[in-house]
Task: inverse folding
């Protein structure tokens, strides 16, 4: 009988925090920017420069800790992790080993196989390293220190996950919590959320863990799921052949769907950690902790319950809208302005999601304002434009955030409410289509649809279909 294997997975998730400035200096954390322009003596590791801790970093770390049920370590400090690499300008990274800011939390996840609690071993604060850019043409490597000193929290899970589905559910839950807190935008493609996967396999029923490998270079949920499946199969294959798994760091190549060894972790590097002598320990008082606790936002579960009470929109809509902080903000603000939650929800669930999918964009990429969506709904309600034209305007608004009323006015798209003009147009359509008129009188209801269509065409889409119907029936 073939052996059955179980996968054991733990994650190290790095999240870039949404502070305006770096963790130990006043340089900008903005993404992009010409290489080495967001730098100063501190974040480029110049001798004699001194770090000063950014208070907002500590507050974000505590916020994430509280939201994930962690114990907040009231007296925590920073350590130096020594290693020599070109993108690490001081030749050490400031991190937290001995006294991290948060410990022993958990996150509830839901997958097809049910609900499960994934333990969080710890959350610590640290600085990001710079970035090496490899120039194939010149065969050289260049270094950009813009990212050096950008604040990170590292969230280390317990090895509680058993499948790619559980890993993705865990990451999505974490991302949502952090986005709701406003602590990070968690854009995987920009590297503001990065996950390293520690994975081992063992025979079902075994109590000891197998030898684990760590996989890096994972910048999308799909890549993470593929890497997990690929590494699981690779390790099982080795065990089936009677070979052993080597403890090492591997790099996943998503194009080739293959991972290759980067460096052995057999003798895990000795980073010679020691407390950073330039930074004082952080003491978190009762008052400070309480202030942060009071500022915690309404998270998804509470939001879903409130939406049910307040907005009377379908459960499915609630689930999709609250599943994304940008969509929830858009919905609430637009509904507050126009007082039409159901219509706002319809525009989000219909046209907004359709265009996001078509353009391959994420909700955080939405450019149009809640005010303009509310104005579009109000313009339709006042019968100044009809539904079809509203959709055309929405496409332009989606791309350029135009004011829908001004745009309809400027492009001459407003509904023609001139009854005399409408009546004479319909009379001509009726006169030109005797067959359809006869069909209608013979009980063929569909014929009226054709006549409405012809009228709308003649009016260049700028008539109110309800008014067209009323006048048509009267004439017929």
Result:
């Amino acid at each position: 009988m073939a052996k059955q294997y179980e996968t054991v997975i733990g994650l190290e998730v790095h999240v870039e925090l949404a502070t305006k400035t770096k963790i130990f200096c006043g340089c900008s954390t903005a993404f992009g920017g010409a290489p080495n322009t967001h730098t100063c003596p501190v974040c480029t590791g110049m001798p004699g420069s001194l770090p000063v801790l950014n208070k907002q970093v500590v507050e974000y770390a505590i916020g994430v800790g509280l939201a994930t049920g962690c114990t907040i370590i009231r007296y925590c400090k920073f350590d130096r992790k020594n290693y020599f690499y070109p993108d690490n300008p001081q030749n050490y990274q400031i991190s937290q080993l001995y006294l991290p800011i948060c410990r022993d939390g958990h996150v509830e996840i839901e997958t097809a196989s049910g609900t499960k609690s994934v333990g969080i071993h710890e959350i610590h604060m640290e600085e990001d390293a710079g970035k090496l850019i490899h120039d194939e043409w010149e065969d050289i490597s260049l270094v950009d220190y813009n990212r050096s000193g950008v604040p990170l929290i590292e969230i280390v899970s317990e090895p509680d996950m058993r499948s790619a589905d559980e890993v993705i559910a865990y990451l999505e839950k974490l991302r949502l919590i952090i986005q709701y807190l406003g602590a990070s935008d968690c854009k995987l493609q920009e590297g503001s959320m990065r996950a390293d996967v520690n994975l081992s396999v063992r025979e079902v029923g075994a109590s000891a863990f197998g030898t684990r490998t760590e996989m890096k270079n994972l910048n999308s949920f799909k890549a993470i799921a593929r890497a997990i499946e690929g590494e699981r199969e690779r390790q099982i294959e080795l065990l089936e052949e009677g070979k052993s798994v080597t403890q090492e760091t591997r790099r996943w190549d998503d194009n080739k769907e293959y991972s290759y060894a980067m460096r052995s972790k057999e003798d895990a590097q000795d980073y010679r950690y020691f407390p950073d002598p330039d930074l004082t320990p952080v003491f978190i008082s009762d008052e400070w902790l309480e202030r942060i606790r009071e500022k915690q936002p309404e998270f998804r579960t509470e939001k879903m319950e409130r939406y049910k009470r307040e907005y009377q929109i379908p459960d499915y809509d609630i689930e999709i809208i609250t599943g994304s902080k940008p969509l929830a903000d858009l919905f609430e603000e637009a509904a507050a302005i126009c007082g039409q939650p159901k219509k706002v929800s319809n525009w989000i669930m219909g046209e907004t999601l359709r265009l996001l999918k078509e353009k391959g964009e994420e909700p955080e990429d939405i450019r149009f304002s809640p005010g303009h969506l509310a104005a579009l709904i109000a313009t339709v309600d006042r019968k100044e434009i009809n539904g079809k034209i509203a959709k055309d305007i929405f496409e332009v608004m989606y791309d350029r955030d135009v004011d829908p009323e001004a745009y309809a006015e400027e492009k001459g798209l407003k509904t023609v409410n001139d009854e005399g003009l409408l009546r004479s147009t319909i009379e001509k359509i009726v006169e030109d289509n005797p067959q359809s008129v006869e069909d209608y009188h013979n009980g063929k209801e569909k014929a009226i649809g054709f006549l409405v269509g012809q009228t709308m065409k003649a009016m260049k889409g700028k008539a109110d279909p309800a008014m067209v119907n009323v006048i048509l029936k009267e004439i017929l």
About this structure: The chain has three domains: 5-287, 298-410, 419-475. The longest strand covers residues 114-127.
